[in-house]
Amino acid sequence: MNRSHFYAQMARMKLIQRWPLMRNTDPENVAEHSLQVAMVAHALAVIKNTLFGGRLDPGMAALRALYHDASEVLTGDLPTPVKYFNHDIATAYKAIEQNAEQSLLAMLPAELQPAFAPLLCGHRDDDYSHLVKSADMLCAYLKCEEELSAGNREFAKARERLTAMLDARMNDEIQYFLEVFVPSFSLSLDEISTPGF
Question: What is the pTM of this model?
Fold first, then answer.
């Protein structure tokens, strides 16, 4: 039986730092971010299904989100201003990401690859991709909120940019998440703790 390096590579997600050009009061790595995006994607799917007539599998939403930045174990996290500086750079980076995804998929035993392909090679235009992108943006917005609440003005412009991006893709489940869950992110531990716990 051949050995696979796939999970050794996935374990390196914790080594890839996000927001590399920004001063962070609380550094964030890709593993932490991916976990949060998975939880938010799951929540968005549940909200959509429960309140707005959706028919998504929340488990699949969470799984797709969990692997949405997996290619960064090979590419690193390219800062957004660089990644989207112009069309040529964005196109070239997308090709690099797709190559990295295929490289990760190839690390798996051949018999397992069909099950992982939909998770690793996520450049599709479907409901799950849109939902994961929304969750990704929400988590970046939450990071900005946390940094600003800690007095770090470095994230003010990023929050403005993310607010505009969320407004552009606004739907019922995003609005619900923003109204119900986001306000707590600017509160202290004492303010969000359950009395008597």
Answer: 0.92
